Amino acid sequence: MNPNALETKAQQRGWKVVSKYDADGPMMTLVRDDWEIWVAFSGSAPETATLRKPGRTEPKKLLLRDIGMWVRRDRGQMSRFAVGDHVVVKGRSGTVTDITLARSTDEKRGRIRLSVVYDDGGTGTPFSDQVSRPRAGLRRR
What we know:
Layout: H1 3-12, E1 16-21, E2 26-32, E3 35-42, E4 45-52, E5 60-61, H2 67-72, H3 75-79, E6 86-89, E7 92-101, E8 112-118, E9 123-124
Antiparallel strand pairs: 1-2, 2-3, 3-4, 4-5, 6-7, 7-8, 8-9
């Protein structure tokens, strides 16, 4: 994806885009809610990319083929939770440890998945729309 196409797609999806230029090409910063994506271009081709998820202080390397998928994801799904949030999944409480994209080939491809460590042991990877916040008064174990 060239810089102009990325900027257009990002702005259509509600991302704020800031571009800086050097001799190699543009460096784009995309910000939406608590998400940040940085993409460095060599000419018109992306060379490196990083993604900082809500609840994280440091960005992690992003596969170049995943840039467009993250940019196009539903804002409502992406902004519901952050790493470190306490959540409830089918009556089990736990803590979000990561936020990822579904990789399956079915209709759920590209939906947001949460990695959750449950308070009573075990882990799960529910979709973000299957997760809720604890009700007031619910104590954490």
